[in-house]
Amino acid sequence: MGQGNKNKKDTCPIYLDNQKPESCQDKSACLSACKKKTEGSGMQEITTGCISGNKCACYVPCPK
Q1: The organism sits in which domain of life (predicted)?
Q2: Distance from C-alpha of 57 to C-alpha of 15, rounded to nearest angstrom
Q3: Residue 42: its pLDDT value, please?
Q4: Which of 6, 15, 20, 30 has the most CB atoms at less than 10 Å from its CB?
Q5: How many domains does the structure of the chain reveal?
Q6: Does some domain include residue 32?
Q7: What is the reported pTM?
């Protein structure tokens, strides 16, 4: 128990700079900011989530 799903890819958070509190409310802006932050890195699977202060964070597959 508590091991999680072994097939699930590990994701690593990427925190965005200069965010306003409550920025997590706007999911599309959050995702576009994440795409801009990871631009050029070839990241395809980007997901977003909320962190403390209701700010946006990006989650990408961890580097191998």
Answers
A1: Eukaryota
A2: 5
A3: 83
A4: 30
A5: 1
A6: yes
A7: 0.73
